[in-house]
Amino acid sequence: MAGVLLGLHILISFALVVVVLLQSGKGGGLAGAFGGAGGVGAVFGGQTAADFLTKATRYLAVAFFLTSLVLAIVSRERVLGTVEGSLERRASTPAAQPVEQLPPGEVPEGLPGGPGDSPGTAGEPPGAEGELPPAPEGGLGREAGEEPE
């Protein structure tokens, strides 16, 4: 149903654009492009053309607003149905099991510093097993015996 209504809404939109562009305003509009003002008057009659286009604009505008309103209501129902469905699915699934709390200071097995970890490495960053290499003799970027600036 929503697809048919959307198609009707699009057709009404295009018809409304065409009817509005055909109306002659202060500048003549596009009505003059189709054989001048006399061409439209010859088909519909002078004042009759303006009355017809004015009424067509009015009816198409009302139809446009009504289809917009109905489409908004239909889409709202779809969204609410989706949200309600997901809430129902969420309520029907069992709650997550609580996580076992460890006493402070105890480390689970398999983590660094926990049971089964090699002794002496708990809390040390990777690569900290050995000693640091000695610093270069002159310091960083200076020649030996040079004074810093």
Q: Helices, strands, pairings?
A:
Layout: H1 2-22, H2 36-44, H3 46-92
List the keywords.
mainly alpha, 3 helices, 0% strand, elongated
Task: Give a structural overview.
There is one protein chain. By secondary structure, the chain is an all-alpha fold. The chain has a domain at 2-91. Helices cover 52% and strands 0% of the residues. It is built from three helices and no strands. Helix 1 (2-22) packs antiparallel against helix 3 (46-92). The termini are far apart.
Q: In brief, what are we looking at here?
A:
By secondary structure, the chain is an all-alpha fold.
Protein structure class = mainly alpha
Report the mean per-residue pLDDT as an integer.
73
**Radius of gyration, whole Å:** 40 Å
Main beta sheet: none
Instruction: Give me the count of strands.
Output: 0
Put simply, the count of helices is 3
Strand content: under 5%
Q: What is the H/E order? A: HHH
Parts with pLDDT < 50 across at least 5 consecutive residues: 38-42
Shape: elongated
The helix content is: 40-55%
End-to-end Cα distance:
83 Å
Oligomer: single chain
